[in-house]
Amino acid sequence: MSGIYPNGTMIDPSNCTLDTCPLSMARLTYIPANANSLYVNSAFSGVFILYMVIQLVQFFLYRTSGYSIGTLIGLALEILGYGARIAMHFNPFKKITFVIQLIGLTIGPAFLSAAIYLCLGRIVTVYGPQISRIKPRLYSTIFMTCDVVSLILQAAGGALASTGDTQDDVDMGVNIMIAGLIAQVVSLSAFGILCADFAIRAKRRREQHNHQHTLLRRSTIWKLLLIGLFIATIAIYIRSAYRIAELWGGFQSHLANDQTTFIIFEGAMMIAGTTVLTAFHPGLAFCGTWKDGRWSN
């Protein structure tokens, strides 16, 4: 991508500033975190930083390794992504900030999905493995595998789309990202179906419940955990569906350059998801029994 000064001189967009080049030469045709949304993007960053600190404390308290690693990486990528968008407010032409915000905000939710997936097998163990159609560890194995595939596609596509030298490279990268996001939506859909199936079976087969965890299942925090995981899954699902629609027309499409829509369906959805994943932490809800549902079961 390059531009031309009025006198005919070629210019590399990476050398541009808002005083020397039109915004049309930037990767996005609007200024991220403009005067109307700078505070919103800064607030998002602040909330994610706060949640990351809380998640670190929760990790040391509850030792929920897999869950904590997923949420911490996801939050770190959200922080990097919004930090880059704030930096683009001052210079929307820099490629590095565009790359960071694109890849960070694209793949961050995949790590949060992984944290959610790790919970289902343990939830099944608390109710009773005999109620489930498949073994508890298979939930994690199946959906973590799907998540890795989705993550690789999104990361590879994002890297190619943001650094491609030709429009064909950019288009190919966008298409790969879309494939990764579609894989994530399909995975979340299958996850939701299996969760609903298990919930129905658990309700109908109360006599088969694991009596060792009866008090745990009756606790308020346990019910809040289940509600929180449902909300987080729906939030990530909506966000992923939005990103597919956003990228479908490429970086220059109307939706890809509508910042208000981005704030609602990307930022707000991820705030909602990370809020419940932090507030209703499984380490607290499982009351020290988190490791009882590990993959070896």
Strand portion: under 5%
Give the strand order of the largest sheet, numbering strands 1, 2, ... along the chain.
Answer: 1-2
Order of helices and strands: EEHHHHHHHHH
Number of strands: 2
- Helix share of residues? over 70%
Note the overall shape: elongated
Summed over residues and divided by their number, the pLDDT gives a mean of 87
Which class best fits the helix and strand makeup? mainly alpha
Number of domains: 1
Outline the low-pLDDT stretches.
1-10
Computed Rg: 21 Å
- So how many helices? 9
* C-alpha end-to-end distance: 54 Å
Describe the structure concisely for a colleague.
This protein is 70% helix and 1% strand. It has 9 helices and 2 strands; from the N terminus they run ββααααααααα.
List descriptors.
disordered N terminus, two-stranded antiparallel sheet, 297 residues
Would you kindly provide a written description of the structure presented here, covering whatever features stand out?
The chain has helices at residues 38-62, 65-90, 95-127, 136-163, 167-204, 214-218, 220-248, 259-279, 282-285; strands at 3-4, 10-11. The chain is mainly alpha-helical and 297 residues long. The chain has a single domain (3-293), classed as Rhopdopsin 7-helix transmembrane proteins, CATH 1.20.1070. Helix 5 (167-204) packs antiparallel against helix 7 (220-248). It is elongated, with a radius of gyration of 21 Å. Residues 1-10 have low confidence and may be disordered.
